[in-house]
Amino acid sequence: MPKGPVIVITGTPGTGKSTHAELLANASPVPLKHINVSEYVKQRGFYEAYDAEWQTYTVDEDRLLDDLETVVEPGGVILDWHTCEAFPERWADLVVVLTCDHSKLWNRLEARGYSLKKIQENNEAEIMQVVLEEARSSYPAEIVVELQSESLEQLEANVARIVEWITQWMKNQEGN
Ligand SMILES: Nc1ncnc2c1ncn2[C@@H]1O[C@H](COP(=O)(O)OP(=O)(O)O)[C@@H](O)[C@H]1O
Question: Where is this region: LID (predicted)?
Fold first, then answer.
């Protein structure tokens, strides 16, 4: 039996993935290992190059996924990344897509010191719902949940909702 579910938390940069993942890891009824995939890629050198113009790393997906497979396989993991289509469909028990009003998102990314170009790119992606579409085309509809992340109230409610989902998931596992 898996140790716990595998929860993908995705969304445009700045929507609140890491904030949600940290709170969720603390509040979860089963231990969940929070993997911030961007940090993981940097720490382990799973990238091919650094693109200075876009201030991003070109990820070596084969190496990343090979490594992550062993981490994800036992279960009990939160995968926190701004994209989700690279993960094999079978990995995820739940895919949470965070969304945020684009003007609020703009302010968050500005506060983070992103270049104007990068803010614009992400802002546009949020307006076009790029990550949501990606999640919907990569996973079964019943495991994809869209949650708004614009206020602290929503943050708390979202975490509580996912905790409830985990509790139910654990019960279903016991029943199997
Ligand atoms: N629901 C929310 N309400 C208010 N502020 C939030 C919310 N979610 C995230 N933030 C703030 O937005 C910024 C970006 O959040 P972060 O979790 O780092 O985003 P991501 O991991 O998606 O890039 C942080 O300053 C965080 O405190």
Answer: 111-121
